[in-house]
Amino acid sequence: MAGQFEPTLLRKLGTRILDHVAPEVADAAAKAAMEAEARRTCRDRHVTLSELRDGRLRLSGILDGEAAGLLRAAIDPLTAPSGPDDPRSPGQRRHDAFADLCRLALRTGDLPEHGGEPAQVVVTTSFETLARRLGAGTLDTGLHLTPETVRRLACDAAILPAVLGGSGQTLDVGRQRRLITGPLRRALVLRDRGCAFPGCDRPPRWCDAHHIHHWADGGSTSLTNAVLLCGHHHRHVHRGEWTVRLGGDGRPEFIPPAWLDPEQLPRRNQYHRRT
């Protein structure tokens, strides 16, 4: 065989050498090799989270076969480009898909409690940050978030108002209130059927409920002031280049920036309207 095959193929053939020279012990040897491989895989599995100076995380590790299959099954459908104009690299799409998986897991409410509280992302901010886009928000890990990010997170979050004294002590904490949930979100799903951004195929479970006119600016929590957006396009809209509105038939349409379309003709998502 060494005279017929290149080294890579010869190595693969070598793993089956017992099938040829000692078939009576091949099955037992294969079982022993499989068990040894399983022990090695179990021993070597790990995920490392390394915090960088600016609060980001470097993610590295080795997944065993089962976990690798689960991750690929969950993340692969989310890594496809959202459209022909998607500017993200494959690595950036995998990053955003991983974030979408985390959002979905948090929405289920099935995660174990952490410190006596449901698993959640906690952001501390001021009313001025939400209303006037001034200042920054702070995660409970200490990482600072831009006003744009805070406003985007507030679109589909539970808000817990608090009044602080001059030295930062808590004087009064209000009751938590959900923004777009229950019957209102179900009506939004029936109307938009998924991410409403033109060309996007993300289903409702991957989407946030975005306030067209932000609630901190006086926008109402109603079907006429809401639209479903996936995480990627939610960030896209909050950057301010695209404008979203409801058309005469009550369905969302998006006005592209002038650099993309000088005529700025409204665009709609036709994917979810397919029959």
UniProtKB/TrEMBL annotation:
Occurrences of domain HNH nuclease (ranges):
183-235
What's one Pfam family the UniProt record gives for this protein? HNH
Member of which family?
Belongs to the Rv1128c/1148c/1588c/1702c/1945/3466 family.
Its recorded name reads: HNH nuclease domain-containing protein
Which organism does this sequence originate in?
Micromonospora ureilytica
